[in-house]
Design brief:
- This is FtsK gamma domain-containing protein.
- InterPro entries: FtsK/SpoIIIE/SftA, Ftsk_gamma, P-loop_NTPase, WH-like_DNA-bd_sf, WH_DNA-bd_sf.
- It comes from Streptomyces siderophoricus.
- The chain is mainly alpha-helical.
- The chain is about 50% helix and about 5% strand.
- The chain folds into 2 domains: about 35 residues, no CATH class; about 80 residues, Winged helix-like DNA-binding domain superfamily/Winged helix DNA-binding domain (Arc Repressor Mutant, subunit A, Orthogonal Bundle).
- The chain contains 6 helices and 2 strands, in the order αββααααα.
- It has a two-stranded antiparallel sheet.
- The N terminus is likely disordered.
């Protein structure tokens, strides 16, 4: 919000309808006007360049691709069966996967995390069941997507 041409007060009036930006120092210094406040509040945050943001996004994409790629062929079939169970019953439960597919807690938990990554179940809510994000009419597409994970 700081003006490089010396018009800080004018810029503040245009953006905030009051002065204030002329006192900012830049590089992460800014004004925030929450709805509950009478006026703007000075905030300080980290200054992040566009190149730094792009580097973080590229790193996250690479990590995510490696995580999905870690699914071996023996897990793909189990993942497909777990998808079918959860979408048909509309019940996102790790313990149900354990009981119905005869797997341990760690493997059932990993399956649920993978199903979350594929957008089939929502995030963990502690001891509660996870939200199932797909309807049974979407089952065929979901199974095709998770079975393609081992390719």
């Amino acid at each position: 919000m700081r003006s490089s041409h010396g018009g800080g007060v004018t810029d503040s009036h245009v953006i905030l309808d009051q002065p204030g930006a002329e006192k900012l120092i830049g590089k992460g210094d800014g004004l925030f006007r929450p709805s509950w406040a009478n006026g703007p509040i000075r905030v300080q945050s980290a200054f992040v360049t566009e190149d730094e943001v792009a580097a973080v996004v590229a790193h996250c994409k690479a990590e995510l691709a490696a995580w999905y790629g870690a699914i071996d062929d023996s897990l793909v079939d189990l993942l497909g069966r777990a998808t079918e169970l959860i979408v048909v019953t509309q019940w996102g439960s790790t313990s149900m996967i354990q009981r119905k597919h005869g797997v341990g807690l760690a493997e059932a938990g990993r399956l649920m995390d993978l199903l979350q990554g594929y957008g089939i179940v929502g995030p963990s809510k502690g001891a509660e069941t996870r939200d199932v994000l797909l309807q049974p009419t979407q089952l065929e597409t979901a199974i095709a997507r998770v079975r393609g994970a081992g390719l």
